[in-house]
Amino acid sequence: MKITRSKIKEIIPHREPFLLLNEVTEYEPGKWGKGYFIPDKDDFYFKGHFPGNPVLPGVLMIESAAQLGAFVVLNLPEFRGKTAYFAGIERVRFKRIVRPGEKLEISVELEKIKSGIGKGIIEGFVDGETCFKGELLFAIR
């Protein structure tokens, strides 16, 4: 199963230049998902982060995982058409930088959702090497 950007945009409200998810490769609504983001060398943030040494900002790695999590949760019928917002980020650690053109593979596992508030475990990898891991909290409105 491959969910392309056009289908992703039917579920989550993010749009270019802030849609940081190229494809969802597999998922179970409300449970878990896998996908990836490939940052392009011409993306606006690389011009200043850092000149001559382009590095994907860590906050954008986390945002990409949050967008995958939003796709997973907003596929539940009761949350269709709503927006998932950050409510917190916990225990995040960055282990490896991501360069333009590298495929950042992302996974999210939602641990709980209650009354529109939830928690998920997120991880990112490039070539099987861990880039980040942590937890995110979200609210659906």
Written description of the protein model:
With 141 residues, the protein is of the alpha+beta class. It has one domain: Thiol Ester Dehydrase, Chain A (Roll). 17% of the residues lie in helices and 40% in strands. It has helices spanning 5-11, 58-74, and strands at residues 23-28, 32-37, 84-94, 104-114, 117-126, 129-140. It has a 6-stranded antiparallel sheet, covered by helices on one side. The longest helix is centred in the middle third of the chain and has 17 residues, at 58-74. The mean pLDDT is 97.
Pick out the low-confidence regions.
none
Amino- and carboxy-terminal Cα gap: 28 Å
Integer-rounded radius of gyration: 14 Å
Number of strands: 6
Summarize the structure.
The protein is an alpha+beta fold. It has 2 helices and 6 strands; from the N terminus they run H-E-E-H-E-E-E-E.
Question: Key terms for this structure?
Answer:
6 strands, 6-stranded antiparallel β-sheet, alpha+beta, Thiol Ester Dehydrase, Chain A, 141 residues, 2 helices, 17% helix
Walk me through the topology:
Elements: H1 5-11, E1 23-28, E2 32-37, H2 58-74, E3 84-94, E4 104-114, E5 117-126, E6 129-140
Antiparallel strand pairs: 1-2, 2-4, 3-6, 4-5, 5-6
